[in-house]
Amino acid sequence: MTGPQDAARLRRDIGYVGAAFLVLNSVIGAGIFALPGKVAASAGLFSPWLFLIVGVLFLSVVLTFTELTSYYDRTGGPILYATDAFGPTVGFATGWLIFLARMTAFAANANVMAAYLASLWDPLGTELARAAIITLVTVGLTWVNILGVKDGVRTLGVLTFLKVIPLLLLVLLGLQHVSGATLIPGGNFHVEDLGGTTLLLIYAYVGFETIGVTAGETRAARSTVPSALIRTMLLTAALYFLIVLVFVAVIPANEYAGATLVDLGRALAGPVGALVITLAAVFSIGGNLAGSILAAPRLLFALAERRMIPQPLARIHDRYATPYRAILVMGTMALVAGLSSGFVELAIGSSVVRLIGYIICIGALPVIRRKADAETREQALRLPGGYAIPLLAFFVCAWLVAQSTADDWMRVSVLLAIGIALFVIEKWYYGRHQSGGNRSE
Q1: Sign of the CA dihedral 379, 230, 96, 294?
Q2: Residue 55's closest CA among 260, 295, 242?
């Protein structure tokens, strides 16, 4: 589906490799460095297979988004899907909620990065040092992305290398400890608190929707984005399976609950291994932060360009061709959230927000299929099995949302109310401006 003015102003500087980096860094963040122990405490030796099973089920959501991305070469992603299917109000709500999910996740991960750095050097453990780290990281990444999308992608490339190589080395060192009984454990498949454990585990797979947001800056977006999305997610699921398999093979069962990948690195290679994995965690979180600051402002840009929030946020920098005002707002909001005491609660609520956005986008697919012109429909990817995959994706997301609490819904309501206020203000201002213009004519 062809798009308006942003295609003529934003530079298509993201190629296939850059798109893959964006997916990888949006998905692999702080989660995999802490989740294996928490999941293993509930699922034991079956936890690698639980990661894989959930990944396969969640693949239905990824595949649905893969088809959705093949219809568009514009900036906006979920905003476009929801708007074209259900109108501007639903499109706004979807874009705003996913933006908040990304922004609060950035704030949370910036704090986790500060904690990992503090474990390397005691003076970094003070409150002042924590604030300084969060500020430097946020301001630095904000500035890099204002300078141009190429610089943002280069940053992602460096951070991808620095975090993936140590994880692959961890797997290679640990595979020698994997036995047949570890790979295929006996007994019944049992998971304590299946709902809560799955909701926790799914955090390792979310964030992939970011790739659709940057389609307006991606070369040959309708083919590049779907291909990069599905291949990167399949490789990520395989990497998760191997990491957790090594984890349960090396770490004693009575230590699962409190162990992280840093403990796995220490068990395999002593203090050097622990240091390497700690640094990998820092780079992994850095890559996730870089992916967020690259993609999330484009959501604000797309909302502003469609007059769903104040239009000045759609301004493109004359020299750097980036949505610099949206980037500045994203960076400022993330910095305030990261330095404040209440951001953790917002981050918890944002996970539910993201799943709601997924459900809306999944529901949009049948409408988008029907409304697409003949040329777009012919070029777009078409999932096999009719609506079987999107239907499975809908039920997976709905079941996960059902695992949330009343407190989570309260936080979602507050976040949505803030966005609705901006939406109403912009519509009122635009309507008044238009009315004034008509009277003057």
Answers
A1: negative
A2: 242
Mean per-residue pLDDT, 401-415: 75
Phi, psi (rounded to 5 degrees) for 240? -60, -45
pLDDT digits 0-9 by tens, 47-82: 999 999 988 999 999 999 999 999 998 878 898 999
Continuous segment of H or E residues that includes residue 349: helix 343-371
76 — alpha (psi -120 to 50), left (phi > 0) or beta?
left
Give pTM, 2 decimals.
0.81
Name residue 369's amino acid.
Answer: R
Q: Does the pLDDT at position 188 exceed 80?
A: no
In this prediction, residue 142 carries a pLDDT of 92
The reported pLDDT for the residue numbered 173 is 93
What would the DSSP string read from start to end of 147-170? S-HHHHHHHHHHHHHHHHHHHHHH
Which one is predicted more confidently, 415 or 361? Answer: 361
Closest Cα partner for 247 from 28, 31, 32?
32
**Gap between the Cα atoms of 271 and 279, Å rounded:** 12
Beta carbons of 51 and 201 less than 8 angstroms apart: yes
Q: Is-contact 82 364, C-beta < 8 A?
A: yes
H-helix or E-strand spanning residue 83: helix 78-86
Report the C-alpha gap between 311 and 421 in whole angstroms.
14
On the question of pLDDT at 6 being above 80, the answer is no
